[in-house]
Amino acid sequence: MQHPRSIHKTSAGVGGQDQRSRFTESPKDRERRELPLRGVMDTIPGLVWSALPDGHGEFCNQRWLDYTGMSLNEIKGWGWASAYYSEDVPNLRARWQIALAGSTSFEAEARMRRADGCYRWFLIQAVPMRDSVGRIIRWYGTNTDIEELKLAQEELQKQTSRLDQLFEQSPEAVAVLSTEDRIVRVNKEFTRMFGYEPGEVLQRQINDLIVPEAEIETSQAYSRVLQHGGRVEVETVRRRKDGTEIDVSLLAISVRTASGEAVVNYAIYRDITGRKRAEERLRESEARFQEMADMAPVLIWMTGTDGLCNYFNKPWLEFRGRTLEQEVGTGWIEGVHPDDVQSCQDGFFPAYHARKPFSMEYRLRRADGEYRWVIESGIPRYSGGGEFAGYIGSNIDITELKQAEAERERLHQLETDLARINRVSMMGELAASLAHEIKQPIAAALMDAKSCLRWLRRDTPDVAGGCEAALRMINDATHAAEVIERVRSLYRRETSDREVLDVNEIIQEMIIVLREKAERNLISIRAALDPGLPPVTADRVQLQQVLMNLMLNAFEAMTDSKGELSVTSKCSEDGQLLVSVSDSGIGLANGEGDRIFDAFFTTKAEGTGMGLSISRKIVESHGGRLWASANRGRGATFHFTLPAAVALSSPAA
């Protein structure tokens, strides 16, 4: 505070005496004079204080003292500084000194300690009070709690910082435009996507930088939409700095004040060039698939994830005689035979829920109304990301196959029946050939029985002679029974068990069986059998059947003239047994070498065409091979091989 005498020296004019008396008053007089003013300051609902011209604290109202918990004496001088956060005091004092030196108003922010020790932000403001000549005679100030404002400012600053970070780190290119379409700000992705640095684009028209010539008019139309408060969301083309064009999705919005005034526009770009190319490849792939599906000789369909059909190819629609709209969803089920609908559902839905392939057969109505058997196969399909996308499948018309299977079953049954008929039909031939074979043991047995009786009826019975005759009789009866059993086994459906056999023995048996027939037809039989042949594992009856078929066929080929039947056996070079039956008959016609083994093919008026077919099947079931060849002169030779001592499964015939 200035010395009163200096003020006094400059005081003059009216009121000079009052001023002189004020500056010469005692401190008590001054306190008494200022007491009403301090009373007023205490009634103000805020923190109010005053300071001397030199900045020393002079007075704080009661609210100030109550808030800080300090006394009036403690705040005087520079004691008031202890009410503030220590880190804020240097800046506060420096700013206070500047205000004192410049005689200007004072304003600062600092954290002020409450009586409970809690610091809160305050705005501290002060203005000087001057006398009539302009000298500062006192400072008056207020402290205003701005803690909430500070928190709000900090939060706003954080939000602004986060927004800036989001703006810069956004995966989309963002440009902030003025209402005249000039670039105000761009983010990092914008510079990466379009190749411009921020300094190259600021305050420039965006249409001049990244909009291709062909898109200028459209871009201007977008600007007009924004001017009217609209929103633009499109896919378009934009140009990079190097002149290349990219596909982008554009989102443009206008930012406005509460009153509706346009402030800036935001343009957000996402590069969709990769997606567009993928979509184009997908369209091309779908077109190729559509073309291939429509040219495929099968009926193709697809479902969505809901299991409902959403696609049928052209052959399906033509087969059904319906449109795609009629077939999609569950429309195709209308063409399924009523008896097959449930089996279709039972075949599809368990596989659908398990996401597994399936296959089933059912009848589907063709456009002409005929139900056709189809085999349907389906597999789950997945997207590029591995997500289930539905099923894709195909149907193939198998009606002819079904009919062929039924025909094969019928023919197989017929073949089985004819094979049995063939065996039975040979019984006539066999019975005549075996008559004398059976007659001989029976006649011998009869003679032995008579001898036995004669020896036993003697006055002195010849027991030894009777026993000998009885034994011969048993042997004769056993031989006759074996012959009869072999005959029976030839026409029974059952087959004998495989056993180790001597092929030469079987050949000799069949020569004995058929000799009488050969003699009746003036046919001689010659055998050339290798005694060193190894045994074979085979079915005796079936080998007898093969040899009988071949030998009887040879007889029939020589009915018009005397002939010779030759049967040979030997080991072939590969170690198998080779049996050949040769005749001097009419031989084989050209091209019949293989056809004669086909089922139902015959050159005989009364033949069934099954004998050689069955014989080949029997030989092949034993691991061998049966074939025929023409002789150089007359006749033909039938050969078959058998592996040595190999046990094989029973034939199907």
Layout of secondary structure:
Layout (H helix, E strand, L loop, with lengths): L3 H7 L5 H8 L3 H17 L3 E5 L5 E4 L1 H7 L3 H4 L13 H14 L3 E8 L5 E12 L5 E10 L1 H23 L3 E5 L5 E4 L1 H7 L3 H4 L4 H4 L6 H12 L4 E8 L5 E12 L5 E10 L1 H23 L3 E5 L5 E4 L1 H7 L3 H4 L13 H14 L3 E8 L5 E12 L5 E10 L1 H58 L6 H29 L7 E3 L1 H18 L2 E7 L6 E3 L1 H18 L5 E9 L5 E6 L9 H4 L15 H11 L4 E5 L5 E7 L11
Could you characterize what this model shows?
- The chain has 653 residues and is of the alpha+beta class.
- The chain folds into five domains: 4-151, PAS domain (Beta-Lactamase, 2-Layer Sandwich), CATH 3.30.450; 170-271, Beta-Lactamase, CATH 3.30.450; 282-397, PAS domain (Beta-Lactamase, 2-Layer Sandwich); 410-494; 498-653, Histidine kinase-like ATPase, C-terminal domain (Heat Shock Protein 90, 2-Layer Sandwich), CATH 3.30.565.10.
- It is built from 21 helices and 22 strands.
- The strands form five sheets. A five-stranded antiparallel beta sheet has the order 2-1-5-4-3, sandwiched between helices. The protein has a five-stranded antiparallel beta sheet with strand order 7-6-10-9-8, with helices on both faces. The chain has a five-stranded antiparallel beta sheet with strand order 12-11-15-14-13, sandwiched between helices.
- A hairpin with a 5-residue loop joins strand 6 (173-177) and strand 7.
- Helix 1 packs antiparallel against helix 2.
- The longest helix is centred in the middle third of the chain and has 58 residues, at 399-456.
- It starts with a helix and ends in an 11-residue tail after the last strand.
- Mean pLDDT is 83; it is low at 1-23 and 646-653.
